[in-house]
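In the laboratory, one determines a bound structure by crystallizing the protein with its ligand and collecting diffraction data. In a computational setting the workflow is compressed into a single prediction: the sequence and the ligand go in, and a structural description comes out. We illustrate the idea with heme C.
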Amino acid sequence: MNRIISILFLFLSTISLAQTWSNEVAPIFYNKCAQCHHQGGISSTPLTTYNEVSQMVYAINAYVTDDEMPPWPPNNNYQQYVHNRALSSTDKTTILDWIANGFQEGNSANTPPPPVFNDGAILGAGDLVVKMPTYTSKALAGHDDYACFSIPSGLTSNRVIKSVEIIPGNRQIVHHALIYLDPTGNEVTDSTGGDCSSPALQTTKLIAGYTPGATPMTLPSVAPLKLGIPITTGTDIYFAMHYPAGSFGEQDSTKVIFHFYPNNETGIRQVYAAAIIENWNFTLPPDVITNVSGSYPPGNNGLTNEISVLSVFPHMHLLGKDIKSFAIKPNLDTVKFIDIPHWDFHWQDFYFFKHMPYLPIGTTIKGNGNYDNTTANLENPNNPPITVYPGLNTTDEMFLIYFHYMTHQAGDENYDMEALMTAEVNNLLKDENTNGVSIYPNPSSNEFSINFEGKKGDKYSIIIYDTQGKIVSTIADKLIATNESITSTWDGNTTQGETAKKGLYFVSINLNGTFLSKRIIKN
Ligand code: HEC
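The predicted complex, in structure-token form:
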């Protein structure tokens, strides 16, 4: 009897200890999946509610087990980046255990309210908007489409860029967009063959990229660290667009919004964007894996200036297998930039460092990659494989590693770039969304009073999210309404008690299992 009771007890305690959607699992999906998996996002499979997720658990189990989702190619043990998308090992275990234990919902009234997504501009109207013409994708099943557009910026004076936001015209078909500055105005639009992936001139510089779920590029712009990229009169904006297989007939017109410093701003440090590592002299014979490398500067003496490095962007095409970049200092120490053990052409990005690596005089920058030109590479555009050379088409290959960098100043490596870049999200959109929630005053620089109608005894939670879907403050956690009219206050601070930055936030409410939301602007 005792034995039966203790077995029963064990069984009951496993049930009660098991994770539930409403307690442990929903916050992980909100934080790590929802920015792409929401209604209107890049993925056609929304994963923000228990119903949506529970119908997909078998696929989720497979993708999460294999680290295919969230997509995040860099090895985080090699270097640390801003906006890391990977699941922590604890989050991964929580999701997999939850699925293995029967993916229980728990009490829906306890589910934290989900983040709200803003598919318009996060950073606001900006100073210059450049839009490509409407393009109709030519990507039939089995073939991706790549098109390039060179558009005059119309700039009438030289300016300094502090932020760049790329807004896909059609979020469901823009797989990536790379934005270049062409100071010569000589690049040409190539939207004919669906195979254009890069500009032709060395003077054309890649400055920003969009991949689904990515955050706009926001350089720190407040003392002590004001960074900027100059753009000159007559510059053309070059868009390299990628539309995935099966998007044939769908239309897109992507735009890029530039934010400039005021003309009289002083103390701005110039950021350079350049393909420091490049190799245009290699041959990839069929049926073998070939190693390609690059080094900068030429000769044996290394860099002649001290440099702080902001970001790295490795670039290969479909035969890419892996790529690594690092630097060797004069004392032979290694500075690690990036290690992508499984190259994925579909998820290219600028990876901004959490802390800027410092390169002293005499340092040499290196890159090293492998290309798999065998039939084992499922992305190989040729079957049987043929010899492939460097070139601009997607079916040619490239070996490039871009960097954002600047002249070093003492203390650069101590800046917390994640905090500084996130703080740039300000200057925002008008409020428009009402669904029974009223907020007063809004905008406000101080307190917000949040009101909505319920029933006496209703359970409610209220969370303030930022535009990235990150929790800023939990202002009500499973409270019980004592009145029909529910009122709460956000004091404008984060949970850590710090003043929240100026900008756009979302208030998200769970009222007895029903979700309500509204935008808040703090100024
Ligand atoms: C950066 C964007 C992004 C993030 C973050 C992301 N995904 Fe995805 N996911 C995609 C894209 C794009 C696809 C493929 C296209 C589609 O589903 O329409 C995909 C596909 C999937 C699929 C296959 C869907 C299907 O219909 O077969 C699953 C399952 C999945 N993701 C789970 C997750 C989970 C779980 C997370 C979080 C732990 C996550 N994803 C995070 C972009 C993302």
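The mean pLDDT is 87. Keep in mind that any predicted model is a hypothesis to be tested, not a measurement.
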